[in-house]
Design goal:
Distance between the termini: 60 Å
Strand content: over 45%
Radius of gyration: 23 Å
Order of helices and strands: EEEEEEEEEEEEEEEEEEEEEEEE
CATH architecture of the largest domain: Distorted Sandwich
CATH superfamily of the largest domain: Glucose Permease (Domain IIA)
Helix content: under 10%
Structural class: mainly beta
Length: 271
């Protein structure tokens, strides 16, 4: 897409998406300026990673590369302005942008202690822990030995970002991973928690809901890439390159106030 100004301005926009949703990056000409806007219809913030190649132009943030946080539910959000240095000669702007999920510049609150995602006074086995031998190699995720239809509770409060509950299929092969039902929650420190393998139509929350730790959110199941009924729980964030990093988290248990859960051990949730 090219525009020609009186000063022979040329403009090229290229956007790549690593985030779910339809974040839109677009420009508007105002005299010798090019204003770059973003629309973010998502319920959580998104990060625009922008690189510019400028010819006889300057930006209002003093550089040609940066990351900009786009607030949730925002339209025509002003990212930056580029302006011609001189009205003489050729002036141009070439823009490349990547859209990353969430606020990638946020820092995980390592001191936060999560609640166990099940009913108070109940006890469940951790069938697979961090870097587990079956399917958690290189992943800080936890499998709780839930049966189908058991209640799942929020381990931490936040905004419900994604809800998938339309699937009923499961198998032991990776080909079934697209049939997973899950709920994803976005937290105040930029991290996400995900509750996976929920039953068909097993969600009790909707995208955009604000929830608190301990809220009832759905029912466990056996959907997607699964060897049997269980609840798969993982906390993760996206780093500044847009790469997903899973995180170890501590939980409040009846046995300890702050505990890293271990594989093949059972834990109880305090009242």
């Amino acid at each position: 897409m090219k525009f020609f100004f009186k000063t022979l301005l040329f403009l090229f926009i290229s956007t790549s998406f690593l985030a779910q949703g339809e974040v839109k990056i677009y420009t508007e000409r105002q005299g010798s300026q090019v204003i770059i806007y973003a629309d973010n219809p998502s319920v959580i913030p998104m990060t625009a990673d922008i690189s510019l190649k400028l010819t006889n132009m300057k930006t209002d943030f003093g550089g040609n590369k940066g990351q900009f946080i786009i607030p949730p539910k925002s339209m025509r959000y002003h990212l930056l302005t580029a302006e011609a240095k001189s009205r003489n000669g050729r002036t141009g702007l070439n823009l490349d942008s990547f859209i990353y999920t969430g606020d990638v510049r946020s820092k995980h609150d390592n001191k936060y202690v999560y609640e166990l995602p099940f009913s108070p006074s109940k006890s469940y086995l951790v069938s697979q822990g961090y870097n587990g031998r079956f399917s958690h190699q290189g992943e800080n995720a936890i499998d709780f030995a839930f049966d189908i239809g058991e209640k799942v509770f929020a381990a931490r409060g936040g905004i419900v970002y994604r809800v998938v509950e339309k699937n009923s299929k499961s198998c032991r092969q990776s080909s079934c991973q697209d049939y997973n039902n899950y709920i994803t929650v976005y937290h105040s420190d930029g991290t996400f928690s995900e509750y996976s393998h929920l039953k068909y139509k097993g969600a009790e929350v909707n995208e955009g809901d604000q929830i608190e730790a301990g809220d009832f959110i759905g029912y466990s199941g056996n959907t997607g890439w699964s060897s049997g009924p269980h609840l798969h729980f993982v906390v993760y964030k996206y780093n500044e390159k847009g790469q997903r990093e899973t995180l170890k988290t501590r939980f409040k248990t009846l046995e300890k106030e702050k505990a890293y859960l271990k594989e093949q051990k059972s834990y109880s949730k305090p009242n």
